[in-house]
Design brief:
Blueprint (H helix, E strand, L loop, with lengths): L1 H5 L5 H41 L14 H16 L8 H11 L7 H15 L7 H19 L3 H15 L8
Length: 175
Amino acid sequence: MFTKLKIFLPGENTRLIITAACIGLMAGLAIIVFRSAVDLVHELIFVQGYELLRIGEGGWRRYLLPLLPVTGAVLLIPLSLLFPGEVNGYSFTNFLRRVNLENGVIKARTIFIKIVSTALTIGTGNSAGVEGPIATIGGALGSQIGQQTRVSGSRMKVYIAAGCAGGSPVSSTPP
């Protein structure tokens, strides 16, 4: 009886495609949270700080403008102390090392750390890009799904790639 029902179950490749699509969708939602966090930090620290310090009035107050990015840098210090090596520097190279040399095992806290640290950095006017953190957040999400379902190393890389692709921005403007 079960053999007759087996023809209705999706095959291994179909399950992989469905799982990868779900990971991509979850990564896209995580990136919406990430971008919202960047906007929130920008509004709370940069915009409100600009108004609070009345920098727009000019004169000597314009010299207070560097305090806003410095505030973001100071807020990163506790994260840097709690998670050494995961906040500062070029963490995307560490991400690639984990994917290629450590079978794609990425800690769940990487998602939280990348969202918070990058939101603090970019939202306060400091210099950073979003592509690396987006790939790291999506890839870490794919890695978590792979770890929970205990897949092989090669399947884990597919899940991580699905997470990276799901988080990647799509340009809405023509080239």
